[in-house]
Q: What sequence folds into this?
């Protein structure tokens, strides 16, 4: 049996999927069609237990992506159900119910505040002016942060209340072993597949380890990169330690580690050696290109118009806005383009959610009269809108200084678009000979490539013809097949070992 961990997908409440969640959903949707032995499980933090679950427990955005892929997780083989730890007659206290009721409106309110904050400049600036718009942004940003803090505190209190209720139920024998509860999901020979972002979940890794030791199943775990461990300066204080502890536990738990590039395989192998950790085999699995795009350039099915339509030619950079993603180099390049090309300068769309340490950059972009009508940060973009931007842009850019793979590059190539990217870490693996590269710290080098792409459309056309004729998109089905083969090898190894043990007896 292959058990797919959906712990992170249950907790995902944003309006769109980012890289890790997109990968998990893309692989899950294909595995459900490739195999007949896939079940879903999750970690119950309050009960410190692993439980069987169904697609109905997943967040709405995840279910929608699975539906688009034509997968039905609930059609997986029937297994003994593991009912939640709080059973029929177990009642929550008034305080527990009050906490749950208080938490219910906070998440959507925080989301709505964030959306209003992200859109306020676009719609209100022409009406109320720049000064009042900036003041409103600052007010909404503070409110958004306050709501996030409230949500976090309420979730923590609710989790503690859950544990109290569970313990009380056990004491009164409402919950007991064998009464509607199966506390263990796995059986010997099963494989647990974890592709999710489960760091920071209390005792998640330890619970997997305890069950693995007791019930002898195999673990295949994905480590996308070691960025938080190797480069703590790009994270908030304390976050590096949380993720590093998770990485170390994943390595200890794993029978096979998956990663997404040969570069990251080398990074992980070196880290394991330096830290003297257990050394399971590390297998590279290439990520699929985005399955929700509308195909290659020239296809008959045209994406619908997005909510924001540029008023001139434009280039795009699809990425979380983050110091590591290096959008600051594009800001400098576009300042020079605006000076040199005047009204002929194309727009630049920065498509992605602002992350850490980019407040100063966004402030500069907003207040720099030379480029504030040329560089347009866009958040909350749907796959359909993104497909339109890919289809109609001049070219794409990806100046990141460090990556695990570089999915926006392969997405760009999959829809036949010319890309200019940084030459560090795994990016040349993602782009191959189809991309023009520059040192991501070299602003003039980036400017030269961008200027050529603007001034010489025949060159871009030649590069895109080569992409359309020779680049082979990599589907999520191919990614899932690679993972499925690794899972089968784990199962075969385990069956062989058990057979040898039987013969020895």
A:
């Amino acid at each position: 049996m292959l058990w797919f961990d959906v712990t992170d997908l249950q907790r995902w409440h944003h309006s769109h999927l980012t890289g890790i969640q997109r990968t998990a959903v893309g692989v899950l949707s294909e595995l459900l069609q490739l195999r007949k032995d896939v079940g879903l499980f999750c970690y119950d933090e309050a009960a410190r237990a692993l439980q069987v679950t169904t697609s109905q427990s997943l967040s709405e955005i995840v279910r929608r992506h699975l539906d688009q892929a034509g997968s039905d997780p609930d059609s997986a083989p029937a297994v003994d159900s593991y009912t939640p730890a709080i059973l029929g007659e177990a009642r929550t206290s008034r305080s527990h119910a009050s906490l749950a009721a208080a938490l219910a409106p906070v998440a959507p309110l925080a989301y709505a505040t964030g959306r209003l904050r992200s859109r306020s400049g676009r719609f209100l600036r022409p009406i109320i002016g720049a000064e009042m718009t900036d003041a409103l942004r600052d007010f909404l940003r503070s409110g958004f942060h306050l709501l996030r803090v409230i949500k976090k505190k309420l979730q923590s209190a609710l989790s503690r209340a859950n544990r109290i209720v569970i313990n009380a139920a056990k004491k009164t024998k409402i919950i007991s072993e064998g009464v509607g509860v199966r506390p263990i999901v796995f059986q010997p020979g099963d494989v647990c597949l974890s592709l999710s972002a489960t760091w920071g979940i209390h005792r998640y890794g330890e619970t997997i380890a305890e069950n693995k030791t007791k019930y002898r199943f195999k673990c295949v775990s994905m480590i996308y990169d070691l960025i938080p461990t190797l480069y703590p300066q790009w994270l908030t204080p304390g976050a590096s330690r949380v993720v590093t502890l998770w990485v170390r536990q994943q390595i200890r738990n794993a029978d096979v580690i998956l990663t997404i590039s040969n570069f990251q395989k080398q990074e992980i192998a070196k880290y394991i050696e330096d830290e003297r950790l257990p050394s399971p085999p590390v297998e590279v699995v290439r990520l699929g290109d985005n399955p929700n795009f509308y195909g290659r350039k020239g296809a008959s099915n045209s994406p619908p118009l997005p909510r924001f339509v540029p008023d001139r030619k434009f280039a795009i950079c699809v990425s979380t806005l983050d110091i590591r993603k290096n959008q600051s180099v594009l800001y400098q390049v576009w300042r020079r383009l605006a000076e040199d090309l005047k009204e002929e300068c194309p727009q630049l769309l920065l498509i992605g959610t602002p992350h850490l340490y980019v407040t100063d950059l966004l402030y500069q972009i907003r207040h720099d009269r030379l480029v504030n009508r040329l560089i347009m940060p866009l958040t909350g973009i749907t796959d359909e809108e993104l497909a339109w931007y890919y289809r109609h842009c001049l070219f794409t850019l990806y100046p990141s200084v460090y990556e695990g793979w570089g999915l926006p590059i392969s997405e760009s190539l999959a829809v036949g678009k010319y890309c200019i990217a940084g030459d560090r870490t795994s990016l040349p693996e993602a782009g191959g000979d189809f991309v023009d590269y520059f040192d991501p710290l070299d602003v003039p080098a980036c400017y030269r490539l961008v200027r050529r792409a603007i001034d010489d459309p025949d060159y871009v056309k030649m590069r895109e013809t080569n992409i359309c004729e020779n680049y082979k998109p990599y589907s999520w089905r191919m990614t899932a097949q690679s993972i499925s083969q690794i899972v089968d090898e784990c199962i075969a190894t385990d069956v062989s070992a058990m057979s040898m043990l039987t013969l020895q007896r």
User: Anything to note?
Assistant: The chain is about 50% helix and 10% strand. Confidence is low (pLDDT under 50) at residues 75-96, 165-182, 294-300, 498-505. The two ends are 26 Å apart (CA to CA). Residues 148 and 483 are 36 Å apart (CA to CA).
